[in-house]
Amino acid sequence: MGTKGREIVKADIKELLELLNKALADEWLAYYQYWIGSKIVVGPMRDLVASELEEHANEELEHAGMLVDRIIQLGGTPILNPSEWQSKTNCDYEAPTDPFVIPILKQNIKGEQCAIDVYNKIAEKVKGKDPITLHIVYKIMADEVEHEEDLEAIMDDLEAMKKHFK
Ligand code: FE
Ligand code: FE
Ligand code: MG
Fold first, then answer.
1. Could you state, in order of their start, the residue ranges of all structural domains in the chain?
2. Fewer C-beta within 10 Å: the chain N or C terminus?
3. Nearest to 25 by CA among 118, 116, 125, 92
4. 10-164: CATH number
5. How far does the centroid of ligand 1 lie from the alpha carbon of residue 163, in Å?
6. Ligand 1 centroid – CA 164 distance (Å)
7. What is the reported pLDDT for 143?
8. Residue 84 has pLDDT above 80, yes or no
9. Across residues 73-91, what is the average pLDDT?
């Protein structure tokens, strides 16, 4: 990163890099959680769910890219070994062993809620100290909020459907 760009960062860079790498691990695991879910999901509204999951997978991958770019700007090294995804993750990975839409959606909703917490905490840490990271974190957090909303809306539709089958 340029000298001036680094000078304005008032956060503890080592600590920040660790937080960003942990979030990077989360994004890759979220990517795979969504991507594999989109391939295996079965049940009502399967195509709609699969395309929503695939879209979210792509957005998680974009988040990973944004984090890596910032890690490099801050002079850090992004995670180089996928084995670190599991050792550094905040939000973990839940194998979608039941491919029915409801458990798949629930696993992804849980992941989004964890991601929102993670980014909210990073935002609190860098507020007033690193405007560029804050900007990136807000952008990602806005996407995670939208993801949660999208998935919960599908759950609501499934719930409404159930009522009318009685
Ligand atoms: Fe994400
Ligand atoms: Fe997300
Ligand atoms: Mg969406």
1. 10-164
2. C
3. 92
4. 1.20.1260.10
5. 33
6. 34
7. 98
8. yes
9. 97
Which ligand neighbours the alpha carbon of 23 most closely? 1
Residue carrying structure tokens 């860098």? 126
Q: Over pLDDT 90: what percentage of the chain?
A: 91
DSSP-assigned beta bridge partners for residue 42: 100
pTM of the model: 0.95
Q: Which ligand is nearest to the CA of 154?
A: 3
Q: Is the backbone of residue 120 left (phi > 0), alpha (psi -120 to 50) or beta?
A: alpha
Say how many Å lie between the CA of residue 108 and the centre of ligand 1. Answer: 11
Q: What is the three-class DSSP state of 42?
A: strand
Q: Decide if pLDDT at 166 tops 90.
A: no
Tens digits of residue pLDDT in 113-161: 999 999 999 999 999 999 999 999 999 999 999 999 999 999 999 999 8
- In angstroms, what is the span from residue 139 Cα to ligand 3's centroid? 15
Structure tokens that stand for 73 in this block: 């700007």
Q: What is the C-alpha separation between 69 and 74, in angstroms, rounded? A: 9
- Are 137 and 80 in contact, with CB atoms under 8 Å apart? no
What are the residues whose beta carbon lies below 5 Å from ligand 1 (ion)?
27, 60, 63
